[in-house]
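Re: that chain you flagged

S.,

Sorry for the slow reply, it's been a week of failed gels. I finally had a moment to sit down with the sequence you sent. For the record, here it is as I used it:
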Amino acid sequence: MTEDVDAVYTWVDGSDPVFQAMRRQYAGPAAADQANRYRSNGEMRFSLRSLLRYAPWVRRVHILTNGQVPRWLEFSHPRIHLVTHAEVFPEPQCLPTFNSHSIEMCLHRIPGLSRRFLYFNDDFFLGRDVYPADFFTPDGGQVIFLDDFPLMGDSGQGSARERACAYTQDLLTKRWGSPASARLLPSHAPQAYDRDLLFRLESQFQNEFRETRGHRFRSGKDLALNVLYGYTLLESAVERGRHRIRVLPDRSREYRFFIIEHRYLRTLHHYVKILWQRPCFLCINDDLVDVWQYHPLVLSLRTFLLLYYWRRAPWERNLWRTKHQTFSPHPPSQ
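Prediction finished late last night. Pasting the structure tokens below so you have them in one place:
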């Protein structure tokens, strides 16, 4: 790899009273549903620490937000580019949005984004050194990370995310035909994207991109970007054969994904195994519903991340500077 590679994060501070009021305004009685998806435990701070430590070759980090700024982030740092939804959404009437699928339809529109980039959710972490060769092949292809678990196939059942995956799989089958073997679920790990290919996908699925951007909350009729993108690379006539599948075995030195639930011993077991194995890719998903911010399991997550990623990054502000920040959108320095 001789070209630059950036990283992109999407982030929201769900504890912000302004955000909560806006969400209630648009969601009504459903505002309390899945509130844990908007709770911030400081994951992005530690994810960025892991990125700096284990992938220092990444050029710039683009953080896509609704206009919020993490209190601890020095966004004037030259390697940080803060971007608002308003800068990338082609339809202003779709904002505000509370739908990660909708936001992902606009990643390729970030100003100054490198052609090849890595997309992180804020609960994705690196556990040891990774290199461009882990994400890109020598002949210009990409590595597609998959779980050893079949993709959801019933668009009428399950959560909105599961139904969106099934809906996207139906579109893939209509466009590229039935696969020779069952499609697998994309891993909860950083995924590589090509900006130019995303623009091409948007031109091929214009109506679906537009419809997904218009859903303020998750819907079973959303496009699931990682499913659409990964299997287009693997199955379309133009791209087929150029890219490589890498199945990540869960609970191994390669990959660990676990959900924090009301199970204390199981959560402790996961922490111990992570410290022992130091997996390359790690995802810790907060699935605790109706708990306060100082619940023991919430505190255990924050403590674990602080101990595991203790080295501060140069874009972190001093701890005593806790005032909210505001910023004006501006193009990244070249």
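What I noticed first: Confidence is low (pLDDT under 50) at residues 330-334.

Talk soon,
D.
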